Amino acid sequence: MLPKATLTPSRVRPASKPSLRSPRSFPSIWLMTDERQGEGLWASLPRLPKGAGIIFRHHATCEPERSVLFVRLRAQARRRGLMLLVAGIDTRLRADGTHHRRSGPPRFGTASAHDIKELRAAERSGAAAILISPIFPTRSHPGKAPLGLMRLARLCRATAKPVIALGGMTKHRARQTARIGAYGWAAIDAWGSDKS
Questions:
Q1: Rounded distance, CA 19 to CA 21, Å?
Q2: Highest mean pLDDT (candidates 9-13, 85-89, 174-178, 189-193)
């Protein structure tokens, strides 16, 4: 059975999915990093439960600032018992795994998908879990039509991989997505406030 990270004070019980082949626990709760978080990123970390995960993006941050930021974040993640993945393939950054959709052998990490075609590509990438988005309207993609719960449910049923719901997510919405088959959830803005 998949290990579950918990939400406080409420517990989200993800739908059952086939066990991952990694002996390491795999988070059901994720923080996505983004330049717009600014210094608020550091305030978000204590709000994550132990065993949660972080996907480091910051694609628009130039080097060497991006690497310096990653090293600082990695130290915080280790101190707090958080998993840290890096978006893309960057062998210079020593993360716990990767987040991308490129085809390859099984690996430790995640991939993103927005429709069934991308879901199949994510499966071929060897990812352990798939982030599907946007489920709800989100500041990250203004004007983009959200998938909604019905389409998310169909995509969850279409794959044996654990699905992480992303896009406009809050703790309340995480309970909704868990009921229709999502293993977990991820967010940017929800972790910036105690009122998520």
A1: 6
A2: 174-178
Q: Is the per-residue pLDDT at 22 higher than 90?
A: no
45, 54, 142, 188 from 81: Cα distances, Å: 11, 11, 33, 19
Q: What is the CA radius of gyration of the chain?
A: 15
Q: Using DSSP bridges, classify how beta strands 53-56 and 109-113 pair: parallel, antiparallel or unpaired.
A: unpaired
- What ranges do the domains of the chain cover? 29-192
pLDDT at 170: 95
| Domain covering 29-192, topology | TIM Barrel (3.20.20)
| Residue corresponding to tokens 């996505």 | 32
| Cα–Cα distance, 49 to 58 (Å, whole number) | 22
More confident residue, 44 or 103: 44
Q: What is the pLDDT of residue 11?
A: 35
- The structure tokens listed for 70 are 């990653």
The percent of the chain in helix, strand and coil, each rounded to the nearest 5, is 30, 15, 55
Residues 7 and 18: their CA atoms lie apart, in Å, by 22
pTM of the model: 0.83
What are the tokens at 5? 């990270």
Helix (H) or strand (E) holding 99, with range, is strand 97-99
